[in-house]
Amino acid sequence: MDLFGEAAPPRDIRGVIVHPGLLDRAAQEALVRDVRTLVEAAPLFRPETRRGQKMSVRMTSAGSVGWVSDRRGYRYEPQHPAGVPWPAIPRSVLAIWDEVAGVDRQPDTCLVNFYDADAKMGMHQDRDEADLRWPVVSISLGDEALFRIGNEERGGRTQSLWLRSGDVAVLGGEGRMLHHGIDRIRAGSSDLLAGGGRLNLTLRVAGA
DNA sequence: GAGTAACT
DNA sequence: ATGT
Question: Which of A87, A136, A191, A193 sits at 20 to 30 Å (Cα–Cα) from A163?
């Protein structure tokens, strides 16, 4: 099986490297099976911001820590909000990191974000990690998503691109601290997930 | 579509 | 301010 037969050369958007079609259909289906198992152990929840507003995405995590947000702010926690440990990061997911991250260290957390047709994610930076030099790897599964990439400072010019199922993006080097977000989901654009929607897997090194 | 601001 |  050709897990990493790239359909097109990687693209560099302001230091964010996007590998279009890195994952073939079989690899995508295997990932979805692993994520379903993961979500059975650590159910999706809807986080809220510090001001108590519900986010539109539902999320969970795998790894030694998981990202959470509530009125106390953003942080990595060793347990799911329900009080259970996060499940292990699936090997199928770690293999993708090994392929594209380009560093001699494994991630210690995998954030699982589920976007329904109406879900969005505002522009933000990934900055809750102890060492911001490690790259971030983002895997897209299911419906297409309009991804916006901005600047290190808030505001200014941005570039948007559609992320498709099987695409893998790496935020490293110059791209690591850029603001980014998801503006829109193109409902019905993929049949990978039976109920529709988009799964995004974000691999990070959270600890020191 | 993209950038800014107001508001909660 | 990972909000609308």
Answer: A87
Asked if the structure places residue A5 within a domain, the reply is no
Q: Which residue is closest, via its CA, to the C1' of B5?
A: A155
Task: Evaluate whether A120 touches A56 at the Cβ level (below 8 Å).
Answer: yes
Taking CA atoms, A127 is separated from A30, A118, A205, in Å, by: 30, 26, 11
The answer to whether A160 CB sits below 7 Å from nucleic acid chain B is yes
From the CA of A90 to the C1' of C3: give the distance in Å: 32
CATH of the domain at A76: 2.60.120.590
- Number of structural domains, chain A? 1
Residue ranges of E strands in chain A: 11-13, 16-19, 58-63, 66-70, 73-77, 109-115, 121-124, 136-142, 144-149, 159-163, 168-171, 180-186, 198-204
Report the alpha-carbon distance of residue A32 to residue A23 in Å, rounded. 12
Contact yes or no for A149/A93 (Cβ under 8 A): no
Domain span at A54: 11-204
CA neighbor of A143 nearest in space, from A102, A200, A90:
A200
* In a domain? residue A1: no
Q: To 5 degrees, how large is the angle CA A45–CA A30–CA A162?
A: 70
